[in-house]
Design a protein that fits this description.
Helix content is 44%, strand content 15%. The chain is of the alpha/beta class. The chain has a domain of 215 residues: 3-Layer(aba) Sandwich (Rossmann fold). Strands 3-4-14-9-10-13 form a six-stranded mixed beta sheet, sandwiched between helices. It has a five-stranded parallel beta sheet with strand order 8-5-6-7-15, with helices on both faces. A two-stranded antiparallel ribbon has the order 1-2. Helix 7 links the parallel strand 6 and strand 7. Helix 10 packs across helix 11 and helix 16 packs across helix 17. The longest helix has 19 residues. The radius of gyration is 21 Å and the shape is globular.
Length: 466
């Protein structure tokens, strides 16, 4: 298996180098050169397998000969052995043909754990084999940061620097990051929004001298391994609902486009999917794009679903690469227009070939959906899941096709919104019950690249080793 950049000018890499590289040197994102295919018979064989077994089977083709099957199977067993639910990603039923995919049973109570618990083990294996260290730099709108820190804390070969927008994540999300006091963990609150944080991370990767000197790698979904690991739960969920012998639809709360892009990858691999519904809050650039063909930046407003408060969705470039026939020159031009002109347009005919639908959900609708879901199905959901449920209802084409909404976070991560909607204050699980009493450690920095670079250089252990 080889990997190519969406912009066409970076070296072709194998899986090992893609994991350790993150962003391509031409500024693009790595994708598989070809999509592994699973026949209907292959998909049927997943029935009855554990999540770890299914993950090993589905993902092994992406590894090429970089990791032996028995070694990788041991990683999936370890990664998913830490989840609170034995099914890892269980389904719950809301009514006759509506389901929630519960993605919050990992150590930090959010869907990012499903990928990052595996990515942490991949780093251990690959860095140990090479005898190298890396400096991980990532941006988070709330959940990636805590999941990445949980996966990387205390590791000798890794220093991790996580940027989050100051004051724009929930208090639970912030404390899950800032109360981890391991010496290799650095939390940085940036004076700006998530797009500012993400732009600085990309700028660090595009400064090749800085990147090479510090061995910079990525845990954001710009790293292919993050997206790859998320493909699995589309297959396992579809099989549990009768796939591949009937299609399934998915509604995905969407900000950075990584989670729903993983569903698109599953469809490219052969999984029958009727609809992939892009569910956005009032920061609706993705919804506007899929309904108009225009991707135009309009700024970011803080919402009660903060992990979706994003305008520049980094994984969207991977999707554009597919609908433009994998032409890197076209993608470079679109990204130039986005940077210099604030947006671009595509031919709607290109979008009509895809399985996507899209809609938006405002703040009041989000609160009402939380309240209604509890009243009708006795299920307490977080605001991001509520956005997915509301837009699924609005965009659904066929009531006979099972609709699965991805429940991306535990309601206790967003207690203020849940309590406002239901008068119920959701409690954290016992292993986090003392979260608000733990010591915090973080630094606040301006939205200034040079200041950030200096901060990282003064602390990254890879420079000491050099």
């Amino acid at each position: 298996m080889r990997y190519i950049s969406t912009r066409g000018d970076a070296p072709v890499l194998n899986f090992e180098d893609v994991v350790l590289t993150g962003l391509a040197r031409d500024g693009g994102l790595y994708v598989p050169e070809t999509w592994p295919q699973m026949s209907k018979d292959d998909i049927r064989t997943l029935a009855g397998k554990t999540y770890a077994e299914a993950a090993a089977l589905i993902l092994q083709p992406f590894l090429g000969d970089c990791i032996k099957p028995d070694e990788f199977r041991a990683m999936t067993e370890k990664a998913y052995g830490s989840f609170a639910h034995k099914a890892v990603v269980p389904l719950s039923q809301l009514d006759d043909n509506d389901f929630l995919m519960e993605l919050y049973h990992g150590p930090t109570l959010a869907f990012k754990d499903v990928a990052l618990q595996l990515l942490g083990l991949l780093y251990d294996h690959l860095l140990g084999r090479q005898g190298k260290k890396v400096t991980i730099v990532g941006a988070t709108s709330g959940d990636t940061g805590s999941a990445a820190i949980e996966a990387c804390k205390g590791r000798d070969a890794v220093d991790i620097f996580i940027l989050h927008p100051a004051g724009r994540v929930s208090e639970v999300q912030r404390r899950q990051m800032t109360t981890v006091l391991d010496s290799n963990v650095y939390n940085i609150a940036i004076e700006g929004d998530f797009d500012d944080c993400q732009a600085m991370v990309k700028a660090l990767f595009n400064d090749h001298d800085f990147r090479d000197q510090l061995g910079v790698s990525a845990v954001n979904s710009i790293n292919w391994a993050r997206v790859m690991a998320q493909i699995v739960y589309y297959f396992t969920t579809a099989v549990s609902l009768g796939g591949p012998d009937r299609p399934v639809s998915f509604s995905v709360p969407s900000g950075n486009f990584g989670d729903i892009y993983a569903g698109y990858c599953a469809s490219k691999m052969g999984l029958p999917i009727d609809q992939l519904i892009v569910a956005t809050n009032r920061n609706d650039i993705l919804s506007r794009f899929f309904n108009t063909g225009k991707y135009i930046k309009e700024g970011v407003d803080p919402t009660i679903s903060p992990s979706m408060d994003i305008q520049v969705s980094s994984n969207f470039e991977r999707f554009l690469f597919e609908i433009y026939g994998r032409n890197g020159a076209d993608i470079k031009e679109l990204m130039r227009q986005l940077d210099e002109e604030g947006g671009f347009s595509v031919n709607m005919a290109q979008l009509n070939e895809a399985v996507f639908s899209a809609g938006r959900c405002d703040e009041q609708e989000t609160l009402e959906t939380i309240r209604q879901t509890l009243a009708e199905s006795a299920k307490l959901v977080d605001p991001h899941t509520a956005v997915g449920l509301k837009v699924a209802s609005d965009c659904r084409r066929d009531q006979t096709v099972p609709m699965v909404t991805l429940s991306t976070a535990h309601p206790a991560k967003f207690p203020a919104a849940v309590e406002k909607a239901t008068s119920i204050h959701p409690e954290l699980p016992s292993h986090m019950a003392d979260l608000f009493g733990r010591e915090e450690r973080l630094v606040q920095l301006p939205n200034d690249l040079a200041t950030l670079q200096t901060y990282i250089k003064e602390r990254a252990r890879i420079l000491d080793a050099a």
